[in-house]
Amino acid sequence: MPTRSRQDKSQITLARALSKFGVASRKQAAELILKGRVGVNAMIARSPDLWIDPKKDKVTVDGKPLRQRQFVYLAMNKPAGVVTTRSDELGRKTVYDLLPDDSRWLFPIGRLDKETSGLLLFTNDTRLGDNVTNPMSGIPKTYSVEVDKPLRLEDRKRMESTFLLDGGTKLKPAQAVVDANNPNAFRITIVEGKNRQIRRLCKSLGYEVLSLCRLSIGAVPLGNLREGRTRPLTAAEREGITFSLTS
User: Fold this and answer.
1) Nearest 5°: phi and psi at 220?
2) Which of 8, 49, 97, 113 is catalytic?
3) Are 73 and 240 in contact (CB under 8 A)?
4) pLDDT tens across 64-92, in order?
5) Is 113 labeled as catalytic in the residue annotation?
6) At 173, phi and psi to the nearest 5?
């Protein structure tokens, strides 16, 4: 297998090239390559780790030349009960069942667990996706939460300070605002995305989460997007996320 020269920084792996061109995620690209659907300079490629120069080498997918695809950015209102995965071994409905037919190469930016609803972003721009999910990005995410009993003032204050979950996972301070019309409901804004973070936080404080919905990611609001539907992000929304990453 060809290797990259230490001085030749123009080369990247074939799987990464497919990802950068918006054809597929790296995992999906590797699957395409291993199935013999990708060619390099008129030869079938067999390794996702093959080093190529995207500007010089001729890459094809299913016999068609590889060209930079236009980046796509979508917002979805994910319903509860739908899993954030491409396919499910249990036959459950997935977010890909809700995407437009021409969106098979998009990937979700982060995840929402099965019973959590609300805003989920999709793109084929791997750079943006990696940046948004980077723990260092600090992009705020706001959720609407309903629990099984009124949120006590002392527990809200604990949410708004550094919190240590069972098992030693440390959470950064959040911001929580109780609904004036429902003491069991509140909005919480976090600046990180640990696995099932809000559910684990509430459980540690003695609350059962009855419903959880993500309302916004940085500059992108859920707004009045209907459940199960998608919409393109506006230029301002995309710029708002980018600004959050670099500010």
Assistant:
1) -105, 115
2) 113
3) no
4) 887 766 789 999 999 999 999 888 888 89
5) yes
6) -55, 140
